[in-house]
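Sanity check

After download, print the first record. It should look like this:
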Amino acid sequence: MCADVNNIYCVGRNYKLHAEELGNQVPVEPLIFLKPSHAAVSLDKAIIHLPQDAGLIHYEGELVLRIARDYVPGMSVEELVDVMALGLDFTLRDVHNDLQKKGLPWTAAKGFKNAAPHTPYIAFPEQEELEATDFTVLKNGVEVQRGNVKNMIFSLQKIVEFIAARYGLGKDDVIFTGTPAGVGPVVSGDSFELYWGEKLMGTCLIG
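Expected structure tokens:
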């Protein structure tokens, strides 16, 4: 478990192509779900153990924000966020599909232990740098995902305002901001590398 993680908010279907690749409707407002703090683990040369008996598991690479202070209405994302990371939203896909068909909460598919690893933090960039820099996920040395805030359906500002207004947003909360297209299966022995531009942010091996 990562220290200093309070609530873990996650944004579903925040990239149009990802929603389409899974056959989901593009949302008209941010789709928010939660993961327990116990799901957060280090993605820094880590060996990560995932459930072995729950069907297909998918990786979903994401930009992760850490909230530095309690939200006050009118705050900008630059005032709220001090650092950022990259993370993997691991998903039990078979379980997730079944829950969606039944209209049930996603916790069993999204909230298991080790389901929200993220890299060490770096300083939160200015908007110009955010939009000029892609994040990428490499699986077994091959790029499988590439994302940029410019391609998000809902901006970082919209996300923090939406979460704060409905659920509250405070110091040490983290937000997984959604995954681009390219999600795929995970099996034991797979390795992942997460890059911010040319900077290697973190690695892990699936145990």
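If your output differs, re-run the checksum step. Summary of this record's structure: The chain has a mean pLDDT of 94.
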